[in-house]
Amino acid sequence: MIYPCILSGGIGSRLWPLSRKDRPKQFLPIFGGESLFQKTCKRVSGEGFSNPIVIGGDSHRFLMGEQLAEIDTAATTILLEPVGRNTAPPALMAALLAYEQDPNALILLLPSDHLIGKEDVFMTAVHHARDAALSGKIVTFGITPTEPNTGYGYIKLEPGSDPIRGVAAFVEKPDLERAKAFLADGAHVWNAGIFLYSAKTMIQAFKTYQPALSEAITALMATRHGDLDFTRLDEDGFAALENISIDYAIMEKADNVVCAPMAPDWDDLGSWSAIWGVLDKDGSGNSAIGDARFLDCKECLAYADQRLVSVIGLEDVMVIATTDSVLVAHKDKAQDVKKVVEQLESEGRSETERHPRTYRPWGYTERINAGDRFAVQSMMIKPGKRLSLQSHLHRAEHWVVVSGTLEITINGQVSLLTENQSAYVPLGAQHTLHNPGRIPVRMIEVQSGTYLQEDDIVRHS
Description:
alpha+beta; Spore Coat Polysaccharide Biosynthesis Protein SpsA, Chain A; Jelly Rolls; 5-stranded mixed beta barrel; 23% helix
């Protein structure tokens, strides 16, 4: 049995303003209504695969749970990382988890933010790699390069034409001249960051090449405990782990590493220009997501979130409009979006941190507007879900039900609100919301007061 382990960390700052710290690129539903995370989960499902092990950031836990539920997938484990520690610790954690279930388990370790156009080619490569992994090899997957890309690490293959090749060397991200030479010689492939190995092989590799890290992770895994649908680890112990990639920790040291080269129409979609490259285009090469219009434009990209975007007389330009931010850039400058994000972060701007929509265990909230002494947000409460009993020291609230049936409790008094009905919550009142029905409740909340930040909450249950 192959246990997929899906790595769901990362931010994807070059896809700002859509990608943010609380909703990074792997969770953006911009590919036929599905996210890259969801596409990855579906890609490694079915016969021969267990339910996935998902490893991701604590701040994204409800987002991961929500997106798994949307595709009717139950994870074997959703393991939460208090802080990012690169790919080596998850590689061993997945091996230890799978080994507990099956000492002969294979782990397919893969990022959640890659797009694969030819999934049959990918699955054929996994099939070939399976036998090698069962024999004790650690298999890395290489992508046949299509351009002299300087943004990827490379793997130099040993001569041959077999579906599984020996690895001559791992190569750091090259300059342009070396990348052109790699493309011409045919002996180099892009390092996709995807691995297949047996649990016992990886456990032994860590004991051999990273004994201190192996001991620390093994001890850390003994601290794991459940929290709702998630699994937590000791935060101090996790933070103390070495921040190191699986390539540096194991792959460049081990003598049992092989590579499965493949050409599955792969892209890590690390920029808006890469997104443009995989989208459908009109006769002038323009691509749109959402409600967008082009006039006398050529090879442009427009993203429109909840509003119309019109682009006139431009070429090779990207216009990304979200509810609170707009990015306009030439496609040649797509990599520089990260610099804008760094500048905004230095200014303490919240637009890099928070997406207007925030997922909760009970549903989500989405900011609509805010100003001096007021804030407006929409809310969705799932069937059967309830918010905690709480009060606020500095704000009052007004609720308006848009659809569904909402049970409200204000200072111990319980009542029902249906469509177009409203309620007022005075400052300091203890209150909670509950959806007793079978359809989601959609509502508008208006907050008013002297202080409207999220930390103005006193929880009573």
